[in-house]
Every structure is written in structure tokens, then in C-alpha cells.
Amino acid sequence: MSYQEGWAAINLEMPDKIPRTEYSADRHWKLVEKVTGIAANESSPISLQQQASSAFYKAWDYGFKWNVLIHNQPLEKCRTKMGHASFAEDGADYSTEVFCPFDDPEDIFDFQPAEVYNVQPHQKLVQDFNEDYAKQCRLAPDAVNTTGIYITLVSGLLEIFGWDMLLMALGIDAEETGHLANRYSEWIQQYFNALADCDARVVKIHDDIVWTSGPFVSPEWYRKYVFPNYKKLFAPLREAGKKIIYTSDGTYTQFVDDIAECGVNGFVLEPTTDMEYIAEKYGKTHCFIGNADTRILLNGSKDDIFREVKRCVDIGKKCPGFFMAVGNHIPANTPVENALYYNEVFEQLRSR
């Protein structure tokens, strides 16, 4: 019933049980083995990893699966590398590679994304999205599946320039940096046009626009250069009748209304964004996914975990489009017993 519950929630039809999703839990291999009995790890063949993850989606009753196709691949010709902290099991994703192709922040002002990066044939992009969506449906046949874009706008600029260059450019000339954002948006539009024509009825749009402390540049800059571009990028998706599920890490409470005005159908949020505000203002018109705090699963007691799940359920239960999730991943260092207890409490409380 997980697909039916997930699809009902996305369409604001109040399923009898709260649906759920999670992030990274399907690659917490010790947890996956405990739940499914299938032993896999970061060194296992991809086929075995996929078998184990698929069994986990089913066992934990995913009603929705977060997925995007377009990460930083289209930017590989020219992008900054900022290293990567350990996240995956055994630090498999750890990287000390740090490199920026730009020597001066003012170089940013002349950057032309459409000249540097490829413009792809429309049908090729549509085919890529369709193939990714079909793959996700095979891996999680009992969930609502998606395909989508990670580097929507701010995340794309960060991938290209890195934090140091981008922040210095904003400090030197925020308007010129805004004009760059406009040029980037014009280039990335091709992917949104293709996403509008793909088979997926639900699409994922990701853009990390804030820090945990909130906006990293004046809110007026976002309202001049980010959200107007969102409206242009999302327009073909809305015209095609897609359900648009938006994600930003950090604390974007200040911009919830702006994002809603851009035409999204749902919000994915970390624990620092105010889910109660979203529930009160948009709980009858939008779906939302979140937002238990992973730090409580990492370090909390059973009582702490119970209270956190209950907090989320108490906010979301009255809203037809609420999905439960740990709002910033269940990484591999989460104690297995805590993750299992989190799931046990959710199962106890999820019925409406």
C-alpha cells in the first residue's frame, strides 16, 4: 500500500497512514543487513547493493523515494572541487582534492555558462530522464518515484565557483553576480524543459539556497535573482502538470512563502526549517517531507527519539500531504539500535 499512500499524500488525499521516506538509510549497510538479512557494503557489486537497498525500501515501506539525475555531471568541464568529508561507510567518499579554476572573483562576472557547457539535444535529455525514472521504478516499485535536478541555480553556482569565490564575488558586486545567476538560469533551462516532457509525474528540484543560520546574502538578492528565475525554470513543469517537490538544506523558513509562490507542490526540509509554519500555512495545499533531527538518532536516548518522532507526527498528522523522514539523512554512523527504534516508534504512531 506504500505507493497508494504516497500518491494520495502528494495529491493531498489524506491516506489512513502517514507515508514515509528516508535519505541514505538504504546505504547504511549494517542497518540494511539487520532489516533485510542481505549483507552488502561499499565494496559489494552494484547488483548486490541494489538488491539490498530495494529490499530495505520495501521493509521500511517507502511511499516516496528522493532521487535526482542531474548532479554536477554537466559542469565537469569547469568546476571547483572543495574536498569531501567522510559520510559513507568506512569513509569511501572522503576526498582531500581542492581545486578552483578561477584566480580572481571578478573572473566570475564575465563567465558565460552557455559558452562553456554543452547545450544538449532536447530528446536526448528527455531520454536520459526517462531512463533514470524507469530505473528508479525498478529499484523501488512500491514507492512514488522521481527524477530531477540537483544544480538548479544556487547549488549550480556553488559547484562551479565554490564558496570562497562566490561569496567574494557577491561582496564585490552583488548585481553582477546576479546577472551571472540569470545567465546560468538561461543555460540550465534546457534541463527543466526536458524534465517537463519526461515520463515522471513527480519531479525533484534541489537547490541549497541557505546555511543553517539562514540566508548567506541579502534576502533582496534572492528575491531579485533567484525566485524570478525559479518561476521561469518551473513554468514548463507546471504547464506539463508535474508535481514539483522542492528541497533545500539549511534553514529556509524565511523563504517558504517565496518558494511557494514559484509554483512548487511540496517541500523537503531539514530540522532547522520551521515545519510547523509550513503545516499551518500550507498543510492543506502542499505536501511536505520531514523533519526528525538526525542528531537525536545519533546521540539521543530512546525517550529522546520517541519525543522527536511524536513532535513530527503531531505536526503532520492533520495535514494530508505529510511524509515522515529524518530531515538530514540516516548516515552510516547512526547506531543501528537507534534507527530500529526510530522505525518502531514511527510504525506505532503513523496511523491516523
From TrEMBL:
GO terms for molecular function: uroporphyrinogen decarboxylase activity. One of its GO terms (biological process) is porphyrin-containing compound biosynthetic process. Residues 173-340 form the Uroporphyrinogen decarboxylase (URO-D) domain. This is Uroporphyrinogen decarboxylase (URO-D) domain-containing protein. InterPro entries: Methanogen_methyltrans, UROD/MetE-like_sf, Uroporphyrinogen_deCOase. Gene3D superfamilies: 3.20.20.210. It comes from Blautia obeum. Pfam families: URO-D.
